[in-house]
Amino acid sequence: MGFEYLFHPKGIAVIGASNDPLKLGYEVFKNLKKYDGKVYPVNVKDETVQGVKAYRSVLDIPDEIDLAVVVVPKRFVKGTIEDCGKKGVKGAVIITAGFGETGEEGKKEERELVEIAHRYGMRLIGPNCVGVVNTKANMNATFITDPKKGDVAFISQSGALGAGIVYKTIKEGIGFSKFISVGNMADIDFAELMDYLADDDDDRAIALYIEGIKDGRRFIEVARRVTKKKPVIALKAGRSESGARAASSHTGSLAGSWKIYEAAFKQSGVLIADTIDDMLSMARAFTQPLPKGRRVAIMTNAGGPGVLTADAVDAKGLRLANLEEKTVEELRSFLPPMAAVKNPVDMIASARGEDYYRTAKLLLQDPNVDMLISICVVPTFAGMTPTEHAEGVIKAMKEVNNGKPVLAFFMAGYVSEKAKELLESNGVPTYERPEDVASAAYALVKFAEDKGLLEE
Amino acid sequence: MGFEYLFHPKGIAVIGASNDPLKLGYEVFKNLKKYDGKVYPVNVKDETVQGVKAYRSVLDIPDEIDLAVVVVPKRFVKGTIEDCGKKGVKGAVIITAGFGETGEEGKKEERELVEIAHRYGMRLIGPNCVGVVNTKANMNATFITDPKKGDVAFISQSGALGAGIVYKTIKEGIGFSKFISVGNMADIDFAELMDYLADDDDDRAIALYIEGIKDGRRFIEVARRVTKKKPVIALKAGRSESGARAASSHTGSLAGSWKIYEAAFKQSGVLIADTIDDMLSMARAFTQPLPKGRRVAIMTNAGGPGVLTADAVDAKGLRLANLEEKTVEELRSFLPPMAAVKNPVDMIASARGEDYYRTAKLLLQDPNVDMLISICVVPTFAGMTPTEHAEGVIKAMKEVNNGKPVLAFFMAGYVSEKAKELLESNGVPTYERPEDVASAAYALVKFAEDKGLLEE
Q1: What top-level class would CATH report for the domain A289-450?
Q2: How far apart are CA A117 and CA A106, in angstroms?
Q3: Is CB count within 10 Å lower at the N or C end of chain B?
Q4: Is B340 within 8 Å of A250 when comparing Cβ atoms?
Q5: How many A×B Cβ pairs under 8 Å?
Q6: Across the strands, what pairs with A320?
Q7: What is the pTM of this model?
Q8: Coil vs helix vs strand at B287
Q9: Whose CA is closest to B95, among B147, B17, B5, B164?
Q10: pLDDT recorded at residue A384
């Protein structure tokens, strides 16, 4: 079941590697030159590809090849897979499109590819996909840009949507451990990948973008096992009737009724995301420990965002913690008279890093609090930057160190970027919208609940 | 009722203008130096402020002053307002805090300020606010950064949240015509501002962030009148019980039950936003004409985003248009065989600007289509940028020119920035998330419906 040959291959052959910048094989090879291991270009015409000695066939490569990335025109794919099998390649990522997604004839050709591969004990990703990325090994076997490094493994059934999400997350500073565009899933599918990722220390959570699953029973069976170890978050497209019809025409897979998927996800402990951002927000939460309950404390330097976050937390079925009288008194002792010392604690705009530190510490120490959300909007007093507020939260978290999760909602775009980086490098997932931080809190609570960890 | 003195004042006095970069009066005066009109610093100690001749009192200014921006310490506010009255100032924006939001005593002091002002026929914004911005006049009478220019007037009851949204929108390329932080609303409130903005050509829509409204009946009465002319979109914080409690402690206003607000908004034709992004997405839609029905056509170069958008459109109660047979045939004539020619039209990844142009044109011409959503994810073929796709849509829109609204969802972060700018400068609101473009479509339909413009 080990997919080491996919994510840490000993040697990679790029079949269809190109010197022509307008070809996908150009981008793929360019990306893979950064890989920690060995990469070999295969090109039927050119002696070298991008300055590297090229081979006419994968069979000509003198060294061991674990993984082949196939970007040749469709008519050459079958022969290429046959060659890969003979070479002893263990896995092939077929980027080339024009198979199962085109109709019955394409489905047949796709099945033939799988048969050839299996005859040689080889496994396939794709066809019709963007490729595979393992950021921890600097392996970008796709024709798109490098995702940022992170802790979430993201499997996408839509290559373009996956690519769009990669570009979007670069702008937003969100990272991935792996990005796997599974395309038509002719061979390797969600279930098998999840099973592997469950035991891979590089990934803290698994995010799935799903259009349609062929073997529902197997998905449920595997997901049930995987979610005992690691959170799985699914965004299912085609929840509406018109969406389902579109999804079915897109991937050729039966989208099926949302009710059936919903039941399957719930049965198997898969967390359901409503939007792309919801999926990312939930998946990113798991750098924090799991809470023992659903009582959330909110601290903020501005009332409005605190109120919106309280609303969002409530909408997710979590509760605002009732702070202990002792906590309230101690907060009152150093916060200004205009501050609100009930949950949400509004330290008001004058709050400095030291106030964040003291408040976070008191809230984390309160036995009625299971989890902390720290909010900061752009400090409005000249000379302040949100970095000191981030530092205050981190200091408190490290000192108290009692296993309660801390999430952050730092508003204000570019002003908060440094603070956000600081929080995230200390394992505090940081969001820019009330509903996103609430989704993250919900994901932690729900996963803890499913594991039987909630004490209530 | 004219608020010309607030948004196009003949002269502005910054009372408390400062040379000390750590004071708010420094930022306010620095910002206002860019104003199209005249600005005078008032400072009791310094001869000049930031290189400009300063006055010891507003009474010493030789010229006419329409607007005073007050950033003096709290104990000087009363005397300052008295002086402003004597000077014949028409409006004052009181940034200084420490009034109604602190309790009964503060409420009393606040009422005194209003009484003084009214005695002189002067009106007040604030106290306890961030200030007022009119981007069309380069007037930034706040201590925060300049918002981007746009068509939406945004009134915020939370200064910090408003500021956070301004910073956030700069990062996202979203603009405002006006930003009005109303603070405690001791005098001028939502209703009066809406009434003025309804007839102001600079603003296409009015967005409100509301924590609590004092005079609900008056709000409804005015909103009903305003929404006949211009869309009003409200984000109400404190919808949950815990949120309402927090809101009430924050602004001192009674938050009231969400059910009551919801009914009031619906009665008066105010569009309800669920999140900050929802509010912005809806408000930005109105650079497009209103649709005659709720039938949406979706075109895309990638299946996944098309499916998610179909889901989001459906969730908003809109419908996917059933394309005419003629449209389907013509699409089939030039799109590749793998394209989906039913709605959503998936032109697949190979689609170029020309395909966007031809497809958009056909969809806009289809009598079964009331509105078009054009989607583009990062084009995956080397040498393509989303700019040509944007150009195709714009060309089709201009040629067809039949009054059907066009919205865009261009995914992929920084890769799409140029395309987004191009679309927006041609009046096409462009979004980065399926739920946002769906909210925009919903806002157009709902506003048209409320005006009795839907033909079904």
Answers
A1: alpha beta
A2: 17
A3: N
A4: yes
A5: 273
A6: A296
A7: 0.94
A8: helix
A9: B17
A10: 78
Beta strands in A219-333 (DSSP E): 232-236, 271-273, 295-300, 319-320
The CATH code of the domain at B1-128 is 3.40.50.720
ipTM of the complex: 0.93
* Nearest CA-CA distance, residue A261 and chain B, Å: 15
Return residue ranges of chain B for CATH 3.40.50.261.
144-287, 289-450
Q: Which residues contact A244 (CB under 8 A, 6 or more apart)?
A: A238, A255, A256, A257, A258
pLDDT tens for A53-97 read 999 999 999 999 999 999 999 999 999 999 999 999 999 999 999
Percentages of chain B per state (helix, strand, coil), in multiples of 5: 45, 20, 35
Q: Which CATH superfamily includes the segment(s) B144-287?
A: Succinyl-CoA synthetase domains (3.40.50.261)
B304-336 pLDDT tens trace: 999 999 999 999 999 999 999 999 999 999 999
Shortest Cα–Cα distance, A413 to chain B (Å): 4
In which residue ranges of chain A is CATH 3.40.50.720 found? 1-130
- In A, minimum Cα distance to B95 occurs at A380
Chain A residues lying within 8 Å of B303, measured CB to CB: 158, 160-161, 211, 246-247, 249-251
- By the 8 A CB rule, do B386 and B416 touch? yes
Q: Does B240 touch chain A (CB under 8 A)?
A: yes
| B392 contact A CB<8A | no
Domain A1-130 maps to which CATH number in 3.30.1360.170, 3.40.50.720, 2.60.40.10, 3.40.50.2000?
3.40.50.720
> pLDDT at residue A247 above 90?
no
Question: Which string of DSSP letters, residue by residue, matches B81-102?
Answer: HHHHHHHT--EEEE---SSGGG
Per-residue pLDDT tens for A226-236?
Answer: 999 999 999 99
- Cite the residue boundaries of each domain of chain B with CATH code 3.40.50.720: 1-128
